[in-house]
Amino acid sequence: MAKQNQATLSSWGQVQNQYQRRMDLVPNLVNIVKGEANFEKSTLIEVINSRAKATQTDITPAITSNQEQLRQFQQIQDKLGSSLSRLLVLVEKYPDLKTNQQFSQLMDELAGTENRISVARRDYNNTVQSYNANLITFPHNLLAKLFGFSTKAYFQSDNNAQKAPIINFSN
Amino acid sequence: MIMKRILLTVFILISSTITSALTLPDTPQTRVIDLANVFSRQQEQNLETRLQKVYKKNQGTEIEILTINSLESQNIEDIALDTARKWRLGRKGINNGMLILISRKDKAVRIEIGYGLEAAIPDGLAGEIERQILIPSLESDDLYNGINTTLDKLMNPINKEYPTPATNQIKNQYPPYYYVIGFIILIIFLILIISGNWRMALDILQLILGIISSGNKDSKKDIGNGGEFGGGGTSSKF
């Protein structure tokens, strides 16, 4: 049980890493896009704001035992995700950006990170699922009460939010 | 609330059991698995030799090439990840594995990168290779050259990251205290036998066997036993 608890925590660590990775990429993206003249400001500001909100929240592994906290965390991150994907759709209208090599590599990193996020989330849900299943079976349920283990929270599958922005650069 | 939880569990169960409708070997016997018959026999052999060399020279860096006919309307990301994990590409603890997946009909490619190669081959490089080399070579029906050029591009960073061959030393599987405990148990076992206490001796024997078998579970081989992939890499589509 302690081993499985550890597994959920390490898969949680991966989730957090990947979200962090996305947040680290955003300033680069913002900088490149800013350089583009006449770029529509409102979408850009939305990305900046939702990233700021995501960095403000203080996250500890204890969040994995709290469905409500996890839901809030997910909501904040999904907001960043959806504002990012709106930005990426918008970017399609700017041919200069599309031919910018630095920009297209950044797009690769972002797309790769979206995929890593969904993999990490799925892995996390899987470890939690086997941990929770184990927790409610005898004799683990008694031991769990004794040692203070409790069930863990899942990521909700919201298909729209989970879909990575589809970026297709091959013309 | 309970209903919701049950539904969620069912959903997670279902989504985790969906695997690709493709039939793939359990473990890859060769570095090139050409299910779509893209390569000639000679080409396949050449690639095989080349990849074996990488495997020997660069600390067991395991690059696997898989061509399939169709994705059968599945995500190329899901297929690549499931396959790379199942095949445990890369060395244990290093995870320097990579899967280059090509779907012929969909004209789609994915370079799936293990944790141990993520630093050497960032997504930007993988994406560039796909856009500039692999996709054009699929278009012009010359995937063989495309793969070779891809390997040319990949070898530089791989040589830097893993410049030496793998050392094939087999690690000592048991920590030293195992031997001390083992010795003590053996003494007890002998004493019990000498004193004619067969029942207890049998219990001790069971204990010994239990310990040995639990030790065996951990002794996986190092090579071809990585398989830790976190969805790194990129995919492109024509």
How would you describe what is shown here?
- The complex is a heterodimer of chains A (171) and B (238).
- Chain A has 171 residues and is mainly alpha-helical.
- In chain A, 74% of the residues lie in helices and 0% in strands.
- Chain B is of the alpha/beta class.
- Chain B has 2 domains: 24-166, Diaminopimelate Epimerase, Chain A, domain 1 (Roll), CATH 3.10.310.50; 176-215.
- Chain B has 7 helices and 5 strands; from the N terminus they run αβαβαββααααβ.
- The longest helix of chain B has 21 residues, at 198-218.
- The two termini of chain B are 45 Å apart.
- Mean pLDDT of chain B is 83; it is low at 16-20 and 216-220.
- Chain A binds chain B through residues 14, 18, 101, 104-109, 111-113, 115-116, 118-120, 122-123, 125-126, 129, 154, 156-157, 168-170, and chain B through 8-9, 11-13, 15-16, 77, 81, 122-128, 131, 135, 229-234, 236-238.
Q: Kindly report the average pLDDT value of chain A.
A: 84
Name the structural class of chain A. mainly alpha
Q: What's the overall geometry of chain B?
A: elongated
Helix content of chain A: over 70%
Secondary-structure element pattern of chain B, one letter each: HEHEHEEHHHHE
Whole-Å distance between the termini of chain A?
51 Å
Quick structural gist:
With 171 residues, chain A is mostly helical. Chain A has helices at residues 2-35, 41-56, 67-91, 95-99, 101-135, 140-147, 159-162. The relative contact order of chain B is 0.16.
Summarize this structure as a short list of keywords or feature phrases.
heterodimer; A: 171 residues; mainly alpha; elongated; disordered C terminus; B: 238 residues; alpha/beta; Diaminopimelate Epimerase, Chain A, domain 1; 2 domains; 5-stranded mixed sheet
